Amino acid sequence: MHNTQPWRFSVRGSRISLRADADRRLEAADPTGREMMISCGAALHTLCLALRALEHRPEAVVLPDPDKPHLVADIHLGRPTTLGDDGAARRLFTQVQKRRTHRGGFRDEPVGAPVEVRRAAACSMNDHLRAPPRREWGKVLSSQSLSVRAGATAVRVAAKGAHRSPARPFPPPHRPTTPLPLTQVRNHVLTTPHAFPLEPTPIHVPDEVLDDLRARLALTRPPLDEGNGDWSYGVPDSYLRELVSYWRDGYDWRKAETAINAYEHYQVSVAGVPVHFMRKPGRGPRPIPLILTHGWPWTFWHWSKVIDPLADPAAFGGDPADAFDVIVPSLPGFGFPGPLTGFPDVNFWKVADLWHTLMTETLGYEKYAAGGCDIGGIVSSQLGHKYADELYGIHIGSGLPLDFFNGPRAWDFAHNRPLTDDQPADVRARIIELDHRWASHLAVHMLDGATLAHGLSDSPAGLLAWLLKRWNTWSDNGGDLESVFTKDDLLTHTTIYWVNNSIATSMRYYANANRYPWTPAHDRTPVVQTPVGLTFVTYENPPGIHTADERVQAFKTGPQADWFNHVNVNAHDHGGHFIPWENPDAWVNDLRRTFHGRRP
């Protein structure tokens, strides 16, 4: 049980909180939660040893809040102190560090027959085992008769009836000459490798899912599509046939999967919602956590070109002081860990609440940064609005106001903007161009997404066509889509949607942003009070704006600027809607500037 590490740490100021993580309890082996709580006691014991080894005198309060039975203990660091002759904690902690349990991957060797027999017996009892709901955790906790004595040589947490192991003589370790200050202890807790509370789970798509995909591709029935070589009616059949053929006979998902798994992947439950995220630990003196959120029709993999330089700037000729601990989740319902059920009202501001819980409770960060584009941009803006005090800032790829999807005609991209005869020709042409670029998906997703999803969820060719139209029209490709997305790129992103059957839930974000409209969490101004950086591209310039400088000035003097505490506004001539993919250097440099001088 202890090897599952069923606990989480979080740090706020000089207080460390230890919480039981019921999602990591082994239900068959620990139906009552008793083993989980004993493991939490062991974690508490080891933490206090570690703090005392750093010459602090921790004070632990067990079960400090009856309304939060999962909150096992609050540990206050206390003042740094010289321990004199009392070196038992340091000696014991030295041995704890030497006696780590195995944290490697699974092995191919089969388990023995006796173990298989016991495992089968446990599985057969599944219907007779019950996991206590959270409201009953208090009963489980009280039954353990936990006893804690804080301020002793080590904090002891024992269950009633447990046998105490005899003390063992350990050689005295090297003793530091001066105690660490509280700020260094806090940073040590959150930046050492052992602080990350989860074990990675690589991405893997079963062979039978890929076999089914190839079988469906082989049965594709194309439509009649004469006179559409210029894409004026949508995706031309000639190009789609080429991609479908390659998807079926040439594309290698396993190769893409290997590249994706070069990063750490995790799957967790946040407020009952399954969440997948990718992580690249920062390499620098004091990396700060950064959560990057994608949009539609993006996947988490659209961030892949910026992850490494953000996490390890020195490897790309940058300053290691700019390092981030990069967290890249999949929007729930957009990809892994699979089809999203039980959350039919998912939208951007509800995801912001999930992300804040993920970062501060699940992962235990005291403060973090956020970035995003498209839907991810307004998720990040909502974080900067509702949780401004717990963010270093945000960096976004659009300046959409948080109420953009409110109102009775949110499906109308033009928002009733008129076309008049007295408009300059270039302004009128740009209005029409942008309407053609954005209007169709917005209206369908808002008004008829479920109807469309019946076809896209059943036909991989249909799914590819719907996504492909946006990737072609929204990217700055100069008429050559594959100069931005190779065939393999296009099919990797599409496969992520297909194997997770996620197109329906991904489109639902639009309708739900209107059905469950955004409302402010406070009335302070600007609405987004955390420091905000923005990256624009001239490919998306509004009517009447022609250059990058004009784009920056138009934002700063326009009504959207009033929404944001903007500290760093940039625009670039290269790149389209998928900025981190199309112009990763610009995105990385802009984001770094946003957080210069804002790190702890």
TrEMBL record:
Gene Ontology biological-process annotations: epoxide metabolic process
Keywords, sorted A to Z: Aromatic hydrocarbons catabolism, Hydrolase
Domain Epoxide hydrolase N-terminal: 199-302
SUPFAM superfamilies: alpha/beta-Hydrolases (SSF53474)
Coiled coil residues, start to end: none
Gene3D superfamilies reported in the protein's UniProt record: alpha/beta hydrolase
GO MF, one annotated term: epoxide hydrolase activity
Keyword Hydrolase: yes
UniProt record similarity statement: Belongs to the peptidase S33 family.
Name the UniProt record assigns to this protein: Pimeloyl-ACP methyl ester carboxylesterase
Organism: Actinomadura namibiensis
